[in-house]
Structure formats: structure tokens, C-alpha cells
Amino acid sequence: MLLPLLPLLAATAFTSPALARALPTDNIITHVVHEKRDFAGSSGRWTKGDRVASHVKVPVRVGLKQSAEAVEKAQGWLMEVSHPASGKFGQHWTQDEIIEAFRPASDSVDEVMDWISETASIPKQRITHTDNKAWLAFDASVADLESLFRTEYHEHHDTATGRSMISCDQYHVPAHLVDHIDYITPGVKGIHVYSSDLRKRSWGPGYHGPGGYGGAPGWQPPKHRPAPYMPWNSNELSTCDVAISPACLRALYHFEPLPPNAKVSPNNSMGIFEEGDFYDQLDLNSFFTNFTKYIPNGTHPILDSIDGGMAPITNLSQAGGESNLDFELAIPIIYPQTATLYQSDDLYYALGGNGTTGGIFNTFLDSIDGSYCTYSAYGETGNDPNLDPTYPDPNGYQGQLMCGVYKPTNVISISYGEQEQDLPAFYQKRQCNEFLKLGLQGVSIFVASGDTGVAGIPGDGSANGCLRNGTVFSPTQPNSCPWLTNVGATKVYPGRTVFEPESAVVDPPGHPYHSAFSSSGGFSNIFPIPDYQTSAIAGYFADYNPPYPYYYNGQYNSSNGLYNRNGRGIPDVAANGDNIITYVGGKYRLEGGTSASSPIFGALVTRINEERIRAGKGPVGFINPTLYQHPYVLNDIVNGSNPGCGTNGFSCAPGWDPVTGLGTPNYPKMLELFMSLP
Ligand SMILES: *[C@@H]1O[C@H](CO)[C@@H](O)[C@H](O)[C@H]1NC(C)=O
Ligand SMILES: *[C@@H]1O[C@H](CO)[C@@H](O)[C@H](O)[C@H]1NC(C)=O
Ligand SMILES: *[C@@H]1O[C@H](CO)[C@@H](O)[C@H](O)[C@H]1NC(C)=O
Ligand SMILES: *[C@@H]1O[C@H](CO)[C@@H](O)[C@H](O)[C@H]1NC(C)=O
Ligand SMILES: *[C@@H]1O[C@H](CO)[C@@H](O)[C@H](O)[C@H]1NC(C)=O
Ligand SMILES: *[C@@H]1O[C@H](CO)[C@@H](O)[C@H](O)[C@H]1NC(C)=O
Ligand SMILES: *[C@@H]1O[C@H](CO)[C@@H](O)[C@H](O)[C@H]1NC(C)=O
Ligand SMILES: *[C@@H]1O[C@H](CO)[C@@H](O)[C@H](O)[C@H]1NC(C)=O
Predict the structure, then answer these.
(1) Is 506 helix (H, G, I), strand (E, B) or coil?
(2) Is 304 annotated as ligand-binding?
(3) Is 637 annotated as a binding residue?
(4) Residue 193: pLDDT above 80?
(5) What is the fold of 268-521+574-676?
(6) Residues 472, 473, 476, 481: is their CA dihedral positive or negative?
(7) Which among 70, 110, 328, 417 has the fewest CB atoms less than 10 Å away?
(8) Is residue 166 scored above 70 in pLDDT?
(9) What atom in ligand 1 is closest to the CA of residue 266?
(10) Structure confidence by residue, pLDDT tens digits, 337-394
């Protein structure tokens, strides 16, 4: 439909003389503003610089809207393959099937292609339709783009990192194409440039992501303390209240190691994500020597290096507490199955130096799913140059961003994260859709729920890490995504044994070696309660209603409530996470954190997948719907809490609770249940 031009002009308040110049030349097709910069949200970090010279050539990406029908149906598809009552349980999708289902309609592609080639005189053969079908890509001069998109490109300078981007304040597309186009770059979202056509900038002072710790933004190193006692006998169970060894875990969750010479599937390696923290082989050797003699020295994870990620370290003093903990827990449970290490990002980005930008996981997800590199959702296409690393990186990895170079493993464990409030909601929703797609393909994702109770990390947003004036509970990210499995932490308290029920970890502040620690848990402000969790959460509120005011739909600013009454509940399950024996930097020591709980749970599911593969079945995939239907396969944890924000937090209770979820694994019962499913 053609609309009169003048009212449109009045409605969009142009300020740019270039636009006033360009518009009157076309009175056939009506153009409308497609995106406009949100000045309120840019918080002074970016400064607008010179206009970009008209001859500069830039790579252009036009993101096409994915089938809206597919996006709407996706949750139903995931339930179809992962709900135990579904006739299609376990019938996971191939990556090609996913690309096909989410591709834009072909008439969108043709119409957008026609417009570009006719208006900018770019031959159609120079426009690439990307493999995942969601993008058109071509190179064009700034002059051509300014007339195509009726805009003006300027350099924008990031005062935090010193980098420059080409972007515009707003741009236009023909009205009849609005529904086909998701996003254009360079647009309001810029592209980084290294062209000699631009003024060279020096690199500015360091910018540390929210949270401010070393390593990935927001990530907290595992808590550690000198080991008070060495259980010399690796099978000793009387000391599990002091130090957790592999034998303690076997007794708690009722499993045995596989025979060292067992024949195992080559396709069932357990994936573990690391960033900015590096395992050390000598430490693994010391651990195996002392606690799991059935594992030979030199046993190590298969390295899937992502965008320059490097491991292991060669200098013992740089050994990473997180990586060593993850592998010293997982390998003893899965051996002789292998572990796969997804070591993400070059040192420049991974070590939280000048390159740290605030987001995590997107470059990792790109590497295991090429279509994610250019996936459009919620107004965001591909990685976000304001939040994610950009490759090639002049300060590190010089290759192109890795897209789909690795196959995802059946199980992936992640012991990193930050808070929901640290990242824009659209960024988190787009990433969450990717976790959903991995679930559709049969991948189980386990994430440590966080170590700060109902609060965030101190200093993140407020002194105590809580929202709205330091009072409202702060949910963790990526945990709040409903399509992954969150793991909280339990503990064997002093004087207790592995033959009694565990309790949630409550390590109060004031410990000489680490800060306060309890499982992060609560309710998302962004994601609603998924169907599989509805009755578990309703049961908790009905029988054990927390003594705090609450709000709905994430609207904490306009209420006195402390938590979202209709948000996705965190965590789903739990496993031991305190006083874990590790070797780090040549030293025997104890570590704690939900960082430990996630690889323990993931390793046990890797064992279940192995048994299913042996029986001719596929991997279990997204396990939450099955676990919430059959909570008896978990040991219900009923004691403990997760204090924070000046409160006692939530309390454990019979059934699901926002501290330890449904509970810790009862391996034989879980195995029996999953073996009974198709
Ligand atoms: C399993 O791995 C082997 C060897 O790497 C490969 O040949 C085979 O195709 C894989 N099978 C499946 C089902 O992926
Ligand atoms: C394995 O490595 C550990 C640590 O370096 C060492 O103490 C031990 O002697 C080694 N064992 C064997 C069998 O080589
Ligand atoms: C544990 O490992 C270290 C390093 O290999 C070794 O020095 C120590 O003797 C071991 N302890 C026991 C009890 O095996
Ligand atoms: C190992 O790392 C430490 C601390 O970063 C450093 O002081 C030491 O010189 C390094 N040693 C070697 C051999 O590189
Ligand atoms: C950050 O940039 C400054 C200034 O260019 C440089 O001196 C410093 O080494 C950089 N730090 C990192 C971690 O790259
Ligand atoms: C924050 O807390 C202070 C002190 O309790 C109070 O005066 C102020 O009104 C609060 N602000 C908001 C936005 O709740
Ligand atoms: C609450 O207010 C803060 C500060 O104004 C703002 O940053 C945040 O986005 C608001 N959150 C919601 C859910 O409205
Ligand atoms: C119950 O949990 C509390 C911490 O909240 C702990 O001090 C206590 O020892 C636990 N009781 C048992 C029986 O483990």
C-alpha cells in the first residue's frame, strides 16, 4: 500500500540534512524508518564521530525475518521430543531440519533481493544468500548504502574499548518490505572497522564487564580453601563431611566407575565450556594418582579451541581452579569415555582485558552451530559487537569467527554466568532460543545455578548485588532460560555422612578463605514459567509460600515485591558443591561452588546416554520435562536455604524448591527411568 509521503516525514522527526536531501528524489516507493537508535540506552559510552567517506566499501548483512510460525511453534517441537509422554520422545532433529524449519519464506528473499539489486545497482549474483538461509550478504560503498537505506553513516567511538564502528542513528526500508527484514548491518547496530580509510584510533583503557572479576564477565572463581585433611585411602567414606572425593560422590549418588577397558561410543564425549581459565595436566595427573588409580596419567580432554582459545597451560602457577575442578570431577565419573573442552576466545577477550565486553557464550554457540552466527531474533542479528568478542581480532586470534566448526556433544556443562540484569533482555532471549534449538537436536545443557543465593555478585548493580535499591532478588543468567538444566549445590555438613540426606549449602559470610556461598535460585524477571514447571512451582507456593511480597511479569520497579511470582524457577536439580578435593597449581586443596555441581550432574547424564546408545537408543536431550514428571528419581533436599539481599532467601522444602530444585541424582533410578523411554 502506498502512503502519502508528507505525514510520514512529519512523524519521524528527521534531523539529518542528508536525509532531507535524499528523500524527495523518490516518490514512487514509500520508505519507513526501520530502526532508530535508542539514545536513552546508550549511556554515554559511544561518541559520534566524523561522517564516513562515501567511497569506503563495507560488508552489508540484511537479516531476513525467520518464519514467525516456526518461532512460535518451537517450544511445542521441543516438548514433542523431550516430554516422556510424547510419542516422539527422543526423535531429535538434525541441524538441516532446524535450518529448514526456521528459514524465511522464499518470497521474502526474492523481494528483498529485487529491491537491493534495482536500487543499488548491485547484480544479484553479487548478493549471497547464506547457508542458513537467514541472511543476504553483499559489499557496497557507503555512498550506495546511504541512498539505499536513506541514512548517513558516521564513525562511532567506544570510549570504553577505544574501538570504532560504522553505524547510523536510523535507517529506512520500503514499507512493503518491513515485514520481511529483521535487521540491517551496518545500521543502528554498527560494524567494527579496521579500514585504513578511517582514522586510526589508539586503544583505550581497560573496560571490565559487569561483575569485574577476572575471567569471563561476572564469573566468580570457585571458592577454595587449604585442605585441612587428606583422606589417604581413596575409598574412605568416613571423611566425606570434611572433603569430597570421587568415592564420596559414588556413595552419595549410587554409581560405580565403568571398567577402564569398557568399550564406549566414540560419539558420546562430555562437553565442558571454559573461558579465561585453563586446565593443567600435572594437576590432573596428581589427582588421578591419588584418587582414581584406574585413570592413567596424561588422560586429558579433547580440545575444541574456539576463536583462539588455548589449553592446557604449561606453567603450573597459572593453573585454573575452574577448569581443574571441572575435569577432576567429570573425568573420574565418565572414564573411559572422553571429555571435550570447549575453550572459548583468544586471550585478549578471555582474560578480561581491554577486549572484555560483557556478554558470554555467543562465540561458543556460534562454533557449535554455524546458523547461530547470523541468527536474527528480538531485533538482534548475529553477535552483538557491543557485548561479544569480534573476530578477526587484531590483538589476538586473526582468523574469521568460527561458525559451526564443531559438532555439539550430547552433554554440555557450563560453570560460568552472570546476572539477568547485566545483559539486555533481547540478547538473552535470542541466546535462549539457541539453547532451545540445541535441545531439539538432543543436546543436554547443564549450568551452575550461581553461588550468591538470591542476591547477585556484590557490587553488581548495588553494593549487595540486589535490584531496586539492593532489596530485590537478582536472577542469574543464562540460568533463567527455560531450555537448559540448572544445577544448585548441596553439602555434607560436619558430622553427617554420605548415607544421610544432603542439605543445601549455606556457607555464611565471614569464612577466612571465601565469601558467603549458597545456591543461586529464584525466579526469572524475563522468562515466564515453562509448562513443564508449572505444577512444581504452584505446589511450592501452595505448601511453602515464601514470607516475602512479590510482583508479576518482572515489574520490580513499580512494586514492593522481592521476587517475580510468574517467572521461570531456578534451579532444576542439585548436586554436591562444597569441600571438593582438587589439585590446583601443584597443591591439594578444597573447592566449592555450583561450579562443581554442574559437571557432576552432566557426567552422570553422559553415563546414562552411554547406556542408551549401547541399547540402540539416542541421547536423552533436554531432560527437564522428564525429571519434573518423575521427581522420584532425584533425592529430594529438604534442609537449607539461599540467603541474600538482607533476607534468609528461599528455603528448601519437600518437592521442588528454588534452592536445590527437585534434588540430587539417584543414579540407578534415573538410569532405569531413561532406559524405559524410547
Ligand atoms: C560415531 O563416530 C564414528 C567415528 O567417529 C562415526 O564414523 C559415526 O558416523 C558416528 N555415528 C554417529 C551416529 O554419529
Ligand atoms: C603420574 O603423575 C604424578 C604427578 O606428576 C606422579 O607423581 C606419578 O608418579 C605419575 N605416575 C606414573 C605412573 O607415572
Ligand atoms: C598425591 O599426589 C602427589 C603429587 O603426585 C604426591 O606427591 C603425593 O604423594 C600423592 N599422595 C598420595 C597419598 O598418594
Ligand atoms: C609462571 O608464571 C608465574 C606467574 O605468572 C611467573 O612468575 C613465572 O615466571 C612463570 N614461569 C615460567 C617458566 O614462565
Ligand atoms: C589495554 O590497553 C592498554 C593501552 O593500549 C595496554 O597498555 C594494555 O596492555 C592493554 N591490556 C590488555 C589486557 O590487553
Ligand atoms: C532507596 O532506598 C532509600 C533508603 O531506604 C530510599 O530513601 C529511596 O526512596 C529508595 N529508592 C527507591 C527507588 O526505592
Ligand atoms: C528498573 O529501574 C532500573 C533503574 O531505573 C532500570 O535500569 C531497569 O531496567 C528497570 N527494570 C525494569 C524491569 O523495569
Ligand atoms: C541443615 O542446614 C543447615 C544450614 O542451613 C545446617 O547448618 C545443618 O547442619 C543442616 N542439617 C543437617 C541435618 O544436615
Answers:
(1) strand
(2) no
(3) yes
(4) no
(5) Rossmann fold (3.40.50)
(6) negative
(7) 110
(8) yes
(9) 2
(10) 999 999 999 988 887 655 555 788 999 999 999 888 877 777 677 888 778 888 888 8
Q: What are phi and psi of 346, to 5 degrees?
A: -65, 170
CB of 203 shorter than 6 A to ligand 5: yes
- The question of whether 322 is a catalytic residue gets the answer yes
Closest listed residue to residue 499, CA positions, set 246, 248, 230 = 248
Retrieve residue 19's grid coordinates. Answer: 536525509
Confidence of residue 197 (pLDDT cuts 50, 70, 90): very low
Whether the full predicted model's pTM is greater than 0.85, yes or no, is no
Asked if 340 contacts 606 with a C-beta cutoff of 8 angstroms, the reply is no
pLDDT digits (tens, 9 = 90+) for 200-241: 211 112 222 222 222 334 445 566 665 556 666 788 999 999
DSSP string, 594-629: HHHHHHHHHHHHHHHHHHHHHTT-----S-HHHHHH
Residue nearest ligand 3's atom 3 by CA: 286
Name the H helices within 61-129.
68-82, 95-102, 106-119
How far is ligand 8, taken at its centre, from the CA of residue 504, in Å? 8
CA 459 to chain CA mean position, Å: 22
Query: Ligand 4 pocket: which of 314, 315, 318, 351 to mutate (most atoms <8 Å of CB)?
Result: 315
| Residue 162 exposed, middle or buried by CB count within 10 Å (0-12, 13-18, 19+) | middle
Give the ligand with the smallest distance to the CA of 467: 7
Task: Please tell me the predicted confidence (pLDDT) of residue 24.
Answer: 31
Are the beta carbons of 52 and 198 closer than 8 angstroms? yes
Strands 270-274 and 164-167: unpaired
Helix 425-440 and helix 95-102, axial crossing angle in degrees, nearest 10: 130
Residues 6+ apart with CB under 8 A from 496: 241, 502, 503
The ligand whose atoms approach the alpha carbon of 346 most closely is: 5
Domain locations in the chain as residue ranges: 1-66+103-197, 268-521+574-676
Residue 505 has pLDDT above 90, yes or no: yes
399 is annotated as contributing to ligand binding: no
pLDDT at 319: 83
Distance CA 319, CA 427 (A): 32
The CA distance from 607 to 220, in Å, is: 28
